[in-house]
Amino acid sequence: MTERLHKLLAQAGLGSRREVERWIAQGWITVNGKVAKVGDQAGPDDEIAIQGRPVTVESPDLRVLAYHKPEGEVSTRSDPEGRVTVFDHLPRLRKGRWISVGRLDINTSGLLLFTTDGELANRMMHPSRQMEREYAVRVLGEVDPAVIQRLQEGVTLDDGEARFDEIREAGGTGANHWYHVVLREGRNREVRRLWESQGVTVSRLIRVRYGPVELDQGLRSGRWRELAPDEMKRLYSELELKWKRPRKPARIARPPGTRRLPRQ
Predict the structure, then answer these.
(1) By CB atoms within 10 Å of each CB, which of 2, 72, 170, 264 scores lowest?
(2) Rounded CA gap, 77 and 86, in Å?
(3) Can you give the residue ranges of the RNA-binding S4 domain (predicted)?
């Protein structure tokens, strides 16, 4: 049975649908020795290669990691400046590769999701799903109620109108004030740009939720954990996808080179 090439490779965990479509358009993928075109179909018996390297289309185990990204790490797979990337701390896979569900800029910390399932990544990021992203934002100075109202009604940015679906006060002392904001888009630096459009300076930004997945208070910066079966079931159900229970139990891991924490 054949399927669209970009869907087949995404299901095999080789990239999201968008990534694979871009590779096809750039002429990186061949099927049975011929350069593939967008819209081509392929099956498990076809010989597929990416930039000359043969790949298998056997689907890997469906896994999702919640990673607590620290500030200073970049969200690309490799960095020409030699900076630490979020992929440096992830566990190795025997099949497929980790696909990032969206990105966080270098100065933003918090929840970043990774999966072996390209279809899951595609659905979570697709604008039609309007999946909520929640951030904890620390700003400098008092914020006028009129500013809060404008940010919820909508303001014009350089790439179109944007707004927060929800803004909640979250306390603060002195010059620092915390808010929790929710939006349903993943545009570049959108949270910062919304505040900055009103002359408000963001001094810290943390993503605390993506869809139904929340950032655990006990998950330390630079560490990851596998989503528990009930979390996976809820996530796949919300996205109308089938899910099989993982073989291994969920666990928390520490990045290479760190010591195990003493028992409390």
Answers:
(1) 264
(2) 8
(3) 3-63
For residue 10, report the phi and psi dihedrals to the nearest 5 degrees.
-65, -40
Placement of tokens 């819209």 in the chain: 39
* Domain harbouring 243, CATH code: 3.30.2350.10
Report the alpha-carbon distance of residue 233 to residue 19 in Å, rounded: 26
Contact residues for 93 (Cβ-Cβ < 8 A; gap 6+):
13, 60, 116
Residue 187 tokens read as: 């545009």
Residue 145 near residue 111 (C-beta atoms within 8 A): no
Q: What is the pLDDT of residues 198-207, one digit of tens each?
A: 999 999 999 9
pTM, entire model? 0.74
- 124 phi and psi angles, rounded to 5 deg: -65, -35
Which residues have a Cβ under 8 Å from the Cβ of 148 and sit 6 or more positions away? 167
Residues 30, 98, single domain; the answer is no
Per the CB < 8 A criterion, the answer to whether 76 and 85 are in contact is: yes
Residues 120 and 231 reside in one and the same domain: yes
What would the pLDDT profile of 115-132 be if each residue is shown by its tens digit? Answer: 988 889 989 998 888 899
Rounded to whole angstroms, the Cα distance separating 24 from 57 reads 16
Which domain does 43 fall in, by range?
A: 3-55
**Domains held by the chain: number:** 3
Q: What is the dihedral of CA 6, 9, 13, 19, to 10 degrees?
A: -40
Phi, psi of 85 (to 5 degrees): -110, 160
Helix (H) or strand (E) holding 120: helix 118-125
